Amino acid sequence: MSEVFESAMSLQHRLENLRAEHQVLDSTISSLCLLKQDDELTLRRLKKRKLIVKDRITLIERMMEPESRA
Predict the structure, then answer these.
(1) DSSP label of 60
(2) What is the pLDDT of residues 24-37, one digit of tens each?
(3) Rg of the chain's alpha carbons, rounded to an integer?
(4) List of residues 6+ apart from 44 with CB closer than 8 A
(5) pTM for the complete prediction?
């Protein structure tokens, strides 16, 4: 396989993992909010991690997009 193809497949795999992690974080945050547990520190940490994951997803998606032509 070519190096470019392997790199693209690696990015695709990483993207899938990040999307799955983002979904788990979203579900966990929603559950904690519904339970009305008073654990603000945990919620803040989960929300911060979710934002980091979302930023990485966006970055990888941009890397994988074909360059737009002006």
Answers:
(1) H
(2) 999 999 999 888 76
(3) 16
(4) none
(5) 0.80
- pLDDT single digits (tens) 49-68: 999 999 999 999 998 887 65
Q: Torsion over CA of 52, 55, 61 and 62, rounded to 10 degrees?
A: -140
State the DSSP string of 1-53. Answer: --HHHHHHHHHHHHHHHHHHHHHHHHHHHHHHHHHT---HHHHHHHHHHHHHH
The whole-angstrom separation of Cα 45 and Cα 59 is 21
The answer to whether residues 56 and 21 touch, using CB atoms and an 8 Å cutoff, is no
Which residue's structure tokens are 């983002």? 22
Place of tokens 């990483």: 14
Name 54's Cβ contacts closer than 8 Å, sequence gap at least 6: 22
